[in-house]
Here is the input.
Amino acid sequence: MAALRPISLGERVFWIGVNDRETDLFEGLWPLPEGISYNAYAVLDRKTALIDTVREPYFEEYLEKVDALLPEGGAPDFLVVNHIEPDHSGSLAALRRRYPDLTIVGNKWTLRLLEQYHGITTGTRLVKDGDILDLGSGSIRFLLTPMVHWPETMLSLDESSKTIFTGDLFGGYGALEGALFDDETDAEAREDETRRYFTNVLARFSPMVSKALGRLGEADYDTIAPSHGIVWRRRPENVVRWFSRWSHFEGDTGATVAYASMYGNTKSMSEAVVRGLAESGVHRISVHDLSRSHLSYVLSDVWRSGTLVLGSPTYNTRPFPAMAALVDFLSDKGLKNRRVGLFGSYGWSGGAIRDLRKFVLSAGLTLVDPVVEVKGAPSSGDLSQCHDLGVALAREVALRPAVQGDNIGSADRAEG
Ligand code: FEO
Here is the structure.
């Protein structure tokens, strides 16, 4: 069976990636209902440079595309490794076996991880920030952007075609549906799945993403070619704007309400809060029952909206387990710049609201009163208070509609 042909990005650059519609969970964690693409590229000059590979099960399909670009008996000269996570380097060892003279190009972290993951220590070329790889008539320049998403991550700029290969930066979930370029599809419609990818995979590294965005000013590029999702050649500024907003924790005027409930008491409180929000003019409200919504989607909505409301019963003196897991992820990812409302119920000892309050204060988020905590089933007065919480949150939105990301936290907390 013949594989799809490479797709041309211009005279010298080709997409040689693959679609994965078989994997259910990315990183074993995050649902892929629409699949994902592993984008790899080839730059043809007097010398041929491949940019990244694909996950190991797709090696044969990738290789067919590589071979389709080479003259009979030819071989690629370089493999540039922008990111060595196995979704991009899974085929690296097999490619090297097929082309033993292939020079693997990476920075000092790439070469360290190349040995750790693939046992390869020879036939490599070390590059530093700003170095140039001469391909004959044109060249590739490297911009090191550590921790977007691993320590070795870097950007590669093909200076002749003005194409910048950005790895995970500007990537998104969703296999390619025929269209490769932003001008071949409804690119705006990919925002939700791109934001979900960002929040699941890159949000923890927001300060480094922000720094990488700053470095784009040093690159003369027309086309952004990431390792997942579509290639941006008509409006690359759109995806840059998305990543800028998300990495600076800028939320919109909507609200995300995440609650857990065992017997319906906390759920009824959530309904009253949501009604208060909606009646007071908050238009985009996402409600998640944490026993049913996957955290992948909850995180994405939290990053979209400037208002977050958490509701939880006490479970063994702590928040309900699904709420504890959400808060753990929000802490890990360093959420900032959110106005937050809290509500919950308990039978005799309490504890959920105490822990949620601790999270909000330690993260430096803005806690909006009233915090509503009820013993047993909520009374009509309790539900009125929940409604009041929704109104108070909406008032905050009206006062300060934009939650601007002027505080992106410490840059030294990342670890792959
Ligand atoms: Fe697409 Fe960090 O790997």
